User: Fold this.
Amino acid sequence: MTLLIAGLAIFLGVHTLTTLRPTRAVLIGRLGEGGYKGLYSLLAAVGLGLIIWGFGHYRATDDVQLWSPPLALKHVARLLMWLAFVALAATYAPPGRIKAILRHPMLVAVKTWALAHLLANGDLGALILFGAFLAWAVYDRIAVKRRGDRGAPPVTGFTSGDAIAIVVGSVAYVAMYWVHPWLIGVPIL
Assistant:
């Protein structure tokens, strides 16, 4: 559990640093843009590695079940995951109505992903892992709003960006039924 928590602290810590604009500016001033991005990427990769290693170790040794989610919540989680994949795809798609409505689709994707996993899992490790990501994404959305970032501009009508987000998100969602057991070691349902 210690590795998981350390990984979360490092990974979410460097991501939180981007919201602290004066501190970020000082670091960029000292390290240069490239140095800052390099250090940021290195720390994020180390944090992510520790999260993966720590969560895997936790599941193998300390899997503490807090509650048993009802099957209905697992079905809700599946729907939420489709929405998360569409939001994630909208992040990188050309401008569209989906991106405009969500404003910050990456944060919506992270919040939806975390909530879905909290609903579908009842163990302590999942609560810590997904709860931390959900709390961070809520914090980051508030920070983005406070600094006046309104997100994606308004768009009227259905666009090619919307079609791309729906198709790519849906394909990725379906692919996870095969990838999740291999990558995570747990079947989706």
In short: The chain has a mean pLDDT of 94. Residues 21-61 form the longest helix (41 residues).
